[in-house]
Specification:
Length: 328
């Protein structure tokens, strides 16, 4: 009897797929996404010829050779080369870079690979499976998997001598290797939901979300090579509103103002640290992206109505965003 049971168990194990559902999903996504991810090396001119300035990964998003990567990967350069997983190599030129979102677009010749499918990071939930695919140091198809461990994070960056914040970043525990910056963060349906941007610490990675705002940034880089932005001058984080406020204001979420920069339009408009932004321009605010999408070129110099919760009292303020420059 014991021998029969062992025989049956062995036969059952042998007939089953050796990959569990988690592994099968990661393998499927890796196989689908890897052809879209290239290694890029950016170069500059020196006395002894061209030299490497930066390197990372990039994601093909059009059929005619446009790739998106990180602004810090291109690092102020104008040209370099990209190598795809199948060994295809192409020279690339920088179309435009936006340090505030850490996104850049480069262009090479039309590849044999099809472009990646972009998803929407707005649908992500904490705990959801994500797969990071990069091409670090020319090692094609470097894949790590994990879960979304946080949403709406911020990364401090420097623009000239001024501190900025890259807002609404995805935090994941999918480990990022050196050179994976600019690579793809994909969901279980093989859609690109983020562009990997930084290692935040042991076991933590960060990615710029693919959403309405980042699509608009990429479109601006393609059209103009730059992004014109309106500047308010505040640092914020999403917050749940107390029950009494939910009933009175008809909103569940807002943006807690963590810091108001001295001399900024936000300060001139009367905002203070500790305020909770409920709406801007009659648009409800629930995360950093909902505010960012209001602060493009058309908002420069236009009065912006702000509904603010301060010490339990709703106030209405007006700020006038100015154009963001290296000095603001």
């Amino acid at each position: 009897m014991v021998a029969t049971l062992i025989s049956r168990a062995s036969g059952s194990d042998a007939s089953e797929d050796p990959l569990d559902s988690y592994s099968a999903t990661v393998v499927r996504v890796a196989e689908a996404v890897t052809p879209h991810v290239a290694a890029i090396e950016m170069t500059g001119n020196g006395r002894n010829g061209r030299f490497r300035v930066g390197a990372g990964s990039a994601v093909l998003f059009t059929s005619d050779g446009y790739l998106v990567t990180n602004a810090h990967v291109v690092g102020g350069t104008e040209a370099g080369h990209a190598i795809f997983a199948d060994g295809t190599r192409t020279a690339v030129e920088v179309v435009g870079a936006d340090p505030l979102s850490d996104l850049a677009v480069v262009h090479g010749r039309a590849p044999t690979a099809a472009p990646a499918e972009f998803g929407d990071a707005e649908s992500l939930r904490v705990g959801q499976l994500v797969i990071a695919v990069g091409n670090p140091l020319g090692l094609a198809g470097s894949v790590t998997a994990g879960v979304v461990s946080g949403l709406g994070r911020s990364i401090p960056v420097w623009s000239g001598r001024n501190r900025r914040m890259i807002e609404d970043v995805i935090q994941t525990d999918a480990a990022l290797n050196a050179g994976s910056s600019g690579g793809a963060l994909a969901d279980a349906r093989c859609r690109i939901v983020g562009i990997n941007t930084a290692v935040a610490g042991a076991g933590l990675g960060l990615a710029v979300p693919v959403n309405a705002t980042s699509r608009r940034i990429i479109a601006s880089l393609l059209k103009d090579g730059r992004v014109r932005r309106a500047y308010l001058g505040l640092v914020n984080t999403p917050v749940q509103l107390p029950a009494s406020t939910v009933v009175r204001a008809g909103r569940r979420e807002g943006l807690l103002v963590v810091e108001v920069l001295a001399g900024s339009p936000a300060e001139h408009g009367g905002l203070r640290a500790g305020d909770v932004l409920l709406s801007a321009g009659q648009k409800s605010l629930s995360n950093a992206e909902s505010l960012q999408r209001l602060l493009f070129a058309e908002a420069i110099g236009a009065p912006l109505d702000l509904a603010v919760l301060r010490d339990g009292v709703e106030l209405h303020l007006v700020a006038v965003p100015q154009e963001m420059t290296d000095k603001t």
